[in-house]
Design brief:
By secondary structure, this protein is mostly helical. The chain is built from two helices and no strands. It has helices spanning 4-28, 31-67. The longest helix has 37 residues, at 31-67. The protein is elongated. Keywords: Membrane, Transmembrane, Transmembrane helix.
C-alpha cells in the first residue's frame, strides 16, 4: 500500500492543474475584461449616487437654515 502523502500530492497536483486551466480559460475568453468593465460601471454609479445625495443634503440644510435665520459655514462645492 502506498504512503498517504503520495495520494495527497496527486490530488493537490490535479487541483493545481485544474485551477490553472480554469484561469487560462477565463483569461482567453475575456472574462476578466468584462468583470473589470462591470466593476468600473458600478463604481461610477456609486459615485454619482453619492454626489447626488450630497447635493440633496446640502440643499436641505440650506433650506432649513434660511427658515431658521441661521448662517451655515459649509465647505465649498
Amino acid at each position: 500500500m502506498s504512503h498517504p502523502w503520495q495520494f495527497y500530492a496527486k490530488v493537490a497536483s490535479a487541483c493545481f492543474v485544474a485551477g490553472g486551466c480554469m484561469e487560462l480559460f477565463m483569461i482567453k475568453t475575456g472574462f476578466y475584461d468584462k468583470v473589470t468593465q462591470l466593476e468600473a460601471e458600478r463604481l461610477e454609479e456609486t459615485r454619482e449616487q453619492r454626489e447626488e445625495f450630497q447635493r440633496t443634503l446640502r440643499a436641505e440644510l440650506e433650506r432649513q437654515a434660511r427658515e431658521k435665520n441661521v448662517q451655515l459655514h459649509l465647505p465649498e462645492k
